[in-house]
Structure to design on (1042 residues):
């Protein structure tokens, strides 16, 4: 297995519910559930004042709690944990701007949008963009492509509806 | 119907799931939804495809199986519109991974989308490719990605750069094509493209020495300049993180410079100034700044030596180490671990602080600090460090104790200056955390105690005292019981007093009390109790006055539900009662265990244990010659790695395993050997040497040599079943002893059946000899006919005699019924049995066989076994 900066991203609620998972190195479905189960056990029970790093199966999980959500990223033993913390914060800030003071419910009902945002920040487990503004702009542009398509589709279906009246 | 109104129904589903109060309710909702989605898919309903996939992704996140939705992703990706593709690619990345065959089907769609006129669609395809592409896809699509590295829009270029990282990791051969386009990205102004380009170059250097050489020559100076510009750049709100413009860019530049500087003095020289600037000028009051400093320290440590810079770096770590923020302390410990190879002296200066971190309340920091302390230990500081760690052992968290104990034991073993100190420290550890000490550690301790003859008295007294306070620590109890069994007399007589000792008064009865407590203690396990019984037997000889009392304790276990204990109890009782004359010889002190042999044995680790224990029974510590070596362990171990046996195989094994318990295995069981599944037979042959499986035949032979080493018995001690072999054999030795003398082996009378092959003494023990006569049928060289002749060398008649044999896979064995199952005494007659062995590798491999004989005399079943691998060579040619 080769070196990947971020092996996976997990968002877990304080109750242990999974809100987002993204795997950049291959894990089978079984391994994935095991990882999630083990890690939520370790991370959710850690006290508030402790450091944000957990060593786990020869790897390191960097996590940070924002309100009711734990953002976790798994990285290699040798990587810069402090930077991974910055990446987590970067992601959170972009989500916050996008949803307008983001809360857990936003991420539940618009989980796919959270994934779209993440895909503009990380690819192949590596950081893609350090400018929050650029990410916001790219997401907005793609959202508007979807909106346009929607409008077109509804106007077409209106025309069809009219015509078949 | 509006195909994009999926949000409402998706919302409804999420609400319904969230409203569930129990897991069963949730499963029911999900099951209903999945059924609806399947129906909709089967109808090939295009309008709902989008919404169905979104729902499936949510269901997938909850951990339910969603593989049936994979093809829907492909269909959506193949649609024309951006919204469908967007959700399709998302589903692809979420529901599939690179190992699924389905993925290959998407290659074509990806190729089209990589060439799409809409840059966002190109972006979607690059993102998916970068996240999940397989080696095949990487090969197929590399040319497209290479072209996109020069695409006009930076959004596509940066995505292509990261996608390339995935490609070259999957197929390193492709990296050559990417060197030039990647290097071109280093001149970009757009931060996104620049950071991804730098990252790509870093990864290229890792897979391709040419790339490293090229970038080092042509781009080191440029990168140094880029870093300088970044460090000196004015405030830019777009990239600012706590006062630093784009720390991500800083960090990536430092990483690439590290790769370029490593092992190259010129390149290292070129970056010295800027590294010094980063190390001194970066603000360290926020996380972002510390992240840069941390990266900078690592780069300074990795590139070619520059004394001044390294002092700077170690000082930064020193500052980190005294930081109040746990994160910073954690990374400092982490980095000091790397720094230790560069400048051990500088790290030693922080030893006191690091030792404090071992006692931190944060498990992550404890663990890091302990690792670091472990590498900091050397001959000069081992004593104070060990003292600190052992003192802490008492108050540390339960979860941390195991790890801490292991490290302390390892330190003691590695650096102990003298045996006295070693034993003292180990006893302290056993006292405080005996339940966390691994078996091999206390085994090693016993070996050391045994070899330190001048400390026997001291040790047994120290253990006696420790036992009084910490009788709940399992391994302490074991070591104490062992030592009391061996050196109990020294405890009572205060033999070998050291100056530091206070004399204690211990009576023989007190000593027996200790063992009695150990054996009574309910929490203690089988091994400890078994060891305690042995110790009692030994004490009964050392303290004749307590003999009766000891017998009473031993007898209490004759009704034990654990067979092992019951057997020991009965046998030891009989030794004490009936065989006073040989008892003292049986329970002599163990010969001194040789440290060197022990450590090599330990390195060989467990696989050797099985053969070791059979060796042990050949050469018992108490010096009793042993007529029959029955390495029961070997066969019993079978039960662990049995392949699911067929019914007949099961019978066969049951016979093999059950022989000790059910005295008369049926003849039919043997007849089934052939059918019994050759895997099982192979296992039989390779047991004991799973590691060196290349020579499955060696274990039995070598055991007779290894058996010379008394340490073997120590290994045997740890496994109850081997104890049984040892104990049974010693007990069995008793009635046999006087019988052995005077019976020289009776001369062989092999029947001459006209074969050209010499007869072979296939097996010989003090009680039994087996001779093989060989013949072959003309025209069938693979098959060897063997006539086995069994001769009883003892004056007892053997009844229920059964011969069993096992062969490896390449052989086929057929056993005819034996001529009788009663073997007359003293060679006055024999049993013959015909065997037919067919060698499927005739001409390549020679015959080999494992044999097992069981018989009864005095109503006792005896087992013997052996391996036959000295078949005449010409049988196989």
């Amino acid at each position: 297995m080769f070196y990947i900066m971020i092996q996976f991203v997990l968002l877990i609620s304080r109750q242990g519910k999974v809100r987002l998972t993204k795997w950049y190195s291959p894990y089978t479905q079984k391994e994935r559930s095991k990882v999630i189960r083990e890690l939520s056990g370790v991370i959710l029970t850690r006290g508030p004042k402790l450091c944000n790093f957990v060593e786990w199966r020869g790897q390191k999980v960097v996590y940070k709690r924002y309100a009711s959500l734990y953002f976790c990223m798994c990285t290699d033993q040798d990587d810069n944990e402090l930077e991974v913390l910055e990446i987590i914060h970067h992601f959170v800030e972009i989500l916050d701007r996008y949803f307008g003071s983001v809360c857990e419910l936003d991420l539940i009902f618009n989980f796919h949008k959270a994934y779209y945002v993440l895909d503009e920040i990380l690819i192949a487990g590596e950081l893609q963009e350090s400018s929050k503004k650029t990410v916001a702009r790219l997401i907005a542009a793609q959202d508007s492509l979807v909106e346009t398509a929607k409008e077109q589709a509804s106007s077409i279906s209106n025309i069809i509806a009219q015509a078949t009246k | 119907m509006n195909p994009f109104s999926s949000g409402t129904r998706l919302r409804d589903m999420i609400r319904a799931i969230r409203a569930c109060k129990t897991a069963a309710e949730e499963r029911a909702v999900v099951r209903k939804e999945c059924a609806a989605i399947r129906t909709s898919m089967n109808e090939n309903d295009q309008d709902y495809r989008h919404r169905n996939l979104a729902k499936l992704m949510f269901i997938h996140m909850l951990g339910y199986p969603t593989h049936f939705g994979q093809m829907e992703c492909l269909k959506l990706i193949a649609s024309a519109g951006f919204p469908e593709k967007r959700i399709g690619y998302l589903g692809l990345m979420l529901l599939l991974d690179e190992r699924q065959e389905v993925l290959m089907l998407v290659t074509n769609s990806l190729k089209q989308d990589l060439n799409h006129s809409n840059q966002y669609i190109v972006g979607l395809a690059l993102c998916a490719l970068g996240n999940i592409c397989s080696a095949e896809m990487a090969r197929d699509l590399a040319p497209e990605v290479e072209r996109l590295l020069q695409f006009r829009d930076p959004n596509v270029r940066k995505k292509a750069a990261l996608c390339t990282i995935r490609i070259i990791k999957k197929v390193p051969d492709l990296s050559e094509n990417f060197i030039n386009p990647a290097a071109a990205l280093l001149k970009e102004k757009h931060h996104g493209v620049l950071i991804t380009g730098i990252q790509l170059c870093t990864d290229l250097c890792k897979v391709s020495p040419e790339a490293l050489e090229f970038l080092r020559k042509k781009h080191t100076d440029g990168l140094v300049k880029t870093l300088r510009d970044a460090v000196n750049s004015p405030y830019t709100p777009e990239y600012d993180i706590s006062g630093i413009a784009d720390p991500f860019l800083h960090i990536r530049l430092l990483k690439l410079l590290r790769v370029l500087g490593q092992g190259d003095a010129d390149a290292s020289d070129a970056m010295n100034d800027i590294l010094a600037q980063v190390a001194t000028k970066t603000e360290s009051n926020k996380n972002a700044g510390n992240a840069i400093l941390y990266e900078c320290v690592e780069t300074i440590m990795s590139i070619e030596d520059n004394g001044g810079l390294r002092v700077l770096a170690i000082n930064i770590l020193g500052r980190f180490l005294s930081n109040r923020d746990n994160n910073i302390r954690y990374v400092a410990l982490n980095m000091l671990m790397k720094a230790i190879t560069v400048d051990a002296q500088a790290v030693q200066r922080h030893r006191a602080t690091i030792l404090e971190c071992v006692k931190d309340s944060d498990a992550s920091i404890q663990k890091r600090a302990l690792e670091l302390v472990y590498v900091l230990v050397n001959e000069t500081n081992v004593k104070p460090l060990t003292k600190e760690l052992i003192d802490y052992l008492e108050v540390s968290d339960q979860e941390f104790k195991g790890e801490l104990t292991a490290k302390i034991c390892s330190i003691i073993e590695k650096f102990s200056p003298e045996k006295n100190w070693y034993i003292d420290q180990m006893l302290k550890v056993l006292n405080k955390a005996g339940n966390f000490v691994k078996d091999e550690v206390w085994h090693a301790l016993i070996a050391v105690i045994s070899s330190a003859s001048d400390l026997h008295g001291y040790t047994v007294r120290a253990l006696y005292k420790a036992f009084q306070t910490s009788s709940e620590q399992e391994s302490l109890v074991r070591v104490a019981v062992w030592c009391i069994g061996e050196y109990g007399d020294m405890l009572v007589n205060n033999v070998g007093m050291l100056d530091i000792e206070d004399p204690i008064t211990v009576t023989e009865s007190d000593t027996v009390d200790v063992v009695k407590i150990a054996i009574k203690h309910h929490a203690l396990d089988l091994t400890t109790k078994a060891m305690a019984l042995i110790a009692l037997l030994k004490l009964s000889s050392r303290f004749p006055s307590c003999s009766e009392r000891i017998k009473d304790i031993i007898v209490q276990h004759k009704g034990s539900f654990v067979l092992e204990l019951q057997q020991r109890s009965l046998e030891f009782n009989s030794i004490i009662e009936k065989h006073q004359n040989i008892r003292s010889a049986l329970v002599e002190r163990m010969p001194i265990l040789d440290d060197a042999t022990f450590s090599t044995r330990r390195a060989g680790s467990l696989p050797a244990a099985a053969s070791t224990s059979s060796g042990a029974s050949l050469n018992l510590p108490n010096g009793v010659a042993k007529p029959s070596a029955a390495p029961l362990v070997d066969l019993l171990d079978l039960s662990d790695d049995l392949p699911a046996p067929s019914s007949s195989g099961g019978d066969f094994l049951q016979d093999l395993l059950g022989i000790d318990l059910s005295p008369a295995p049926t003849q039919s069981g043997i007849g089934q050997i052939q059918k019994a599944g050759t895997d099982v037979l192979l296992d039989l042959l390779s047991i004991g040497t799973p590691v060196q499986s290349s020579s499955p035949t060696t274990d039995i032979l070598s055991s007779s040599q290894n058996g010379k080493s008394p340490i073997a018995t120590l290994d045997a001690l740890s496994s109850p079943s081997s104890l049984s072999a040892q104990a049974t054999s010693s007990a069995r030795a008793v009635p046999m002893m006087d019988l052995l003398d005077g019976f020289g082996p009776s001369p062989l009378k092999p029947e001459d059946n006209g074969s050209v092959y010499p007869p072979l003494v296939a097996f010989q023990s003090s009680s039994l000899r087996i001779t093989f006569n060989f013949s072959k049928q003309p025209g069938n060289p693979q098959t060897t006919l063997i006539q086995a002749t069994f001769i009883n060398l003892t004056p007892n008649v053997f009844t229920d005699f059964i011969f069993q044999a096992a062969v490896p896979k390449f052989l086929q064995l057929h056993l005819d019924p034996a001529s009788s199952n009663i073997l007359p005494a003293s060679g006055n007659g024999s049993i013959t049995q015909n065997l037919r062995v067919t060698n499927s590798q005739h001409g390549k491999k020679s015959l080999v066989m494992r044999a097992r004989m069981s018989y009864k005399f005095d109503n006792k079943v005896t087992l013997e076994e052996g391996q036959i691998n000295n078949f005449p060579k010409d049988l196989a040619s």
